[in-house]
Amino acid sequence: MIPLEWELVLASLLFCIGLYGVLARRNAIIVLMSIEIILNASILNFVAFSAYTNDPSGQVFALLAIAIAAAEAAVGMAVFLSIYQTHGTIELDKVRLLRL
Amino acid sequence: MTRERDVLVVIAVGALFVVMASSVVGIPWPTEAHEIPLVDRDANATAQDGVANSLFRAFSVTIVLIAILLAAAMIGGVYLAKMDEPGKVGP
């Protein structure tokens, strides 16, 4: 069995990879994928603590978080499609939709 | 500019990873992992006995809320992405 420390370090690594994608990349789809990676890091923490504390609530939260991630991805992709049709790009630095 | 930004982000995220990883190492975490059953079919099973028991007893309202959220996301996604006329997308 993998020690809990290793799983927490792996979750930290996943979180940092996702944070790098959000901060450094400009493509909206890559940013959305990075947000999903961050979400997966939290899900990994839920499942790890659930297994080591013998409490199924963490795995239930993981299932609910996966469902919310699916909804987020669907709406995000629809928004990006709309932005691409209006701006011709999904580079986040070039989209000035919300700026005055 | 892009190169400088990438380097700054790598340094910041690397430092954050070191802080996060060092904060979880060396702590006396529980060492014994348990296998939680998917479902306990016993009639007297509580919400703590299996994932499905907990999901459909303690979190039944949450499931309904998630279902409403998923339906709203599906309808909203289709509404945002639908193309009424060529070249025009969205409301």
Describe this structure in words.
- Chain A contains three helices and no strands.
- By secondary structure, chain A is mainly α.
- Chain A has a domain of 67 residues: Helix Hairpins.
- In chain A, helix 1 packs antiparallel against helix 2 and helix 2 packs antiparallel against helix 3.
- Chain A starts with a helix and ends in a 13-residue tail after the last helix.
- The mean pLDDT of chain A is 91.
- Chain B is mainly alpha-helical and 91 residues long.
- Chain B has one domain.
- A two-stranded antiparallel ribbon of chain B has the order 1-2.
- In chain B, strand 1 and strand 2 form a beta hairpin.
- Chains A and B meet through helix 1, helix 2 and helix 3 of A and helix 1, helix 2, helix 3 and strand 2 of B.
Secondary structure layout:
The complex is a heterodimer of chains A (100) and B (91).
Chain A: H1 4-24, H2 28-53, H3 57-87
Helix pairs in contact in A: 1-2, 2-3
Chain B: H1 2-24, H2 51-57, H3 60-81, E1 83-85, E2 88-89
Antiparallel strand pairs in B: 1-2
